[in-house]
Write a structure and sequence with these properties.
This protein is mainly alpha-helical. It is built from three helices and no strands. The longest helix has 27 residues. The chain is flat and about 50 Å long. The chain starts with a helix and ends with a helix. Keywords: Membrane, Transmembrane, Transmembrane helix.
């Protein structure tokens, strides 16, 4: 029963809809994005922050999610 609850949370959420939406945009406009956005220069500091942000969010989610999984 607990597995069904987790599956429902994963597949019926705003995050899942956002992933589906981003995947659809990438599939539809992948060539355009690769052609024009890769030509623009990226600030080194912005790139460092952009790499660290998802890692920190993942760590925070795993740390706080342990209480939900264990209980």
């Amino acid at each position: 029963m607990k597995a069904l609850y987790y599956l429902r949370i994963i597949f019926i959420s705003y995050e899942f809809l956002f992933l589906i939406f981003c995947g659809a945009i990438y599939m539809a406009f992948g060539d355009y994005l690769g052609r024009y956005f890769l030509k623009s220069p990226i600030n080194e500091d912005a790139l460092k922050w952009a790499m660290l942000f998802p890692i920190s969010i993942c760590g925070w989610t795993l740390k706080d999610g342990v209480g939900v999984i264990i209980s």
